[in-house]
Amino acid sequence: MAASNTARSDRLSATRDSARKASQELRGFFSRPMTSFYLVIMLTFALVTFGLVMMASASAVDSIIKYGSPYYLFNRQIMWAAVGVVALWVGMRVPLSFWRRISGPLMILSILMLMLVLIPGIGTEIYGGRRWFGFGPLQLQPSEVGKVAFLLWGAHILVRRKKQHNTWSGLLMPLLPGMAILAGLVVIEPDLGTTLTYLVLFLALLWTVGTPMRLFGLLGLGVLGAGGLAIWAEPYRLSRVTSFLDPWSDPAGAGHQALQGFYALGTGGLTGVGLGNSRTKWGALPNGHSDYIFAIIGEELGLVGCATVLLLFGALAFVGLRIAHRSTDPFIKLVASAAVVWQVAQALINIGYVVGLLPVTGITLPLISSGGTSLIITMFVMGVLASCARHEPAAVAHLKKKQMRLPSLLRLPVPRNARDSDPFSGSEQSARVKRAPAKKPSVKRQPVRSAPAKRAPAKRAPAKRAPAKRTPVRSEQPARGRDTRQRSARQNVSQERRRRAG
């Protein structure tokens, strides 16, 4: 008995030691200056790789039916992923100051593209929505470009108007009108899911700058009112809401996709039926490789696969908010926080309507669902997020001292300090005013108070000496000469007396 207790205590102590050692190693890993950068890259490629594997399984049946090859959609997704890798590198390579500088023109271009796509003959209509530009076999969705434009432009506007954040109008103008224009054009397409994404970006930017909760409450009431009108105006949106509330009321119509998603998730159980062994992808589940790919993950990989997806997006949320917290530049804070909230919220909305917590909106699962424009734009945003990680103060100081292998291999420039990389001189000048050369601060010279000089003793003028009385020098002349002089003096005196008497 004593021996068993001793063995048990030894195992417990060994477990504690290993746990303590693992905790120290993990703490040391997160204390490194380049940890955020490497985590963003690792999570991006992990999600893309996971998505390609599931894409190969979920799209095989649709590829055979539509294109005659089980690998057509998979091969096209690989091509988009290759383009996305280039977009990821561009997001890391190009300085953040450049994206900030062109955020205004990019916003205007996005609005023009969203207007052009609504014109028949220019925009391509698919599934009842005019949302794409067609270039032969390639398609471009301008609403995805608009998300990036609004992210960069909104962050730039909020930083420039930092002094006006004490008023509601200073916070909302011109951010709210810009979002309303983009969202209104997307609603006309129609695309309610992308409209919801614009709203998420708008709220994420306001949350990052510390908007009062009262303003959030008023905005929430306005969103509910506008959303209710948008749902009531279109019959298909209303049918989605009613099918969400009771999908079994119309199992062959509006509730068919939601019910098939439930069946797929329920079939998977804990570990799933095995990769490639899904049954619902054989025509039962519409859009199984795009909107409802999470249901295929749950069926083939079970709860373990679904938990893996949630864990990856949870790690992405942690890293993105960590970058925003550790950054000192306000523009980088806004871009990092809003970008990660955008991606994670989009994933949660997709998972939410697959499991029946939200109405079906058509939002894809980032980096996993099929879609060319969505994948490329998302990987570009991940590149921008990685660039934000390289601008953390600790990372900047580390990169200036030591050349890292991966950044040098990717030809990434050494980031400058946050204030040096700001093209708007503290974010208060206009975007069109060129940055003036910094003036050397004028230093006011304080008058140096010298100790009072000791007065030198006044020089006394030398006293005038009284002329010394000269004693007549008795000459050694003979007495004869002396008598002659006396005689002449007497004669002179006598003459003077006579003259006065006469």
Give a description of the structure.
Its EC number is 2.4.99.28. It is found in: Cell membrane. This is Probable peptidoglycan glycosyltransferase FtsW. The protein is an all-alpha fold and 502 residues long. It has one domain (39-409). Helices cover 63% and strands 3% of the residues. Strands 1-2-3 form a 3-stranded antiparallel beta sheet, with no helix packed on it. α2 (35-58) runs antiparallel to α14 (293-326). The longest helix has 34 residues, at 293-326. Mean pLDDT is 83; it is low at 418-423, 425-436 and 473-478.
CA-CA gap between termini: 171 Å
Poorly predicted spans: 418-423, 425-436, 473-478
Which structural class fits the helix and strand makeup? mainly alpha
Strand order of the largest sheet: 1-2-3
- Provide the helix percentage: 55-70%
Please give the radius of gyration in angstroms.
45 Å
Mean pLDDT: 83
Report the total helices.
Answer: 19
Number of domains: 1
Number of strands: 3
Element order, helices and strands?
A: HHHHHHEEEHHHHHHHHHHHHH
Bulk shape: elongated
Question: Per DSSP, what share of the residues sits in E-state strands of 2 or more residues?
Answer: under 5%
- Major sheet: 3 strands, antiparallel
Defining traits:
three-stranded antiparallel beta sheet, mainly alpha, elongated, 19 helices, 502 residues
Describe this structure in a few short sentences.
The protein is built from 19 helices and 3 strands. It is mainly α and 502 residues long.
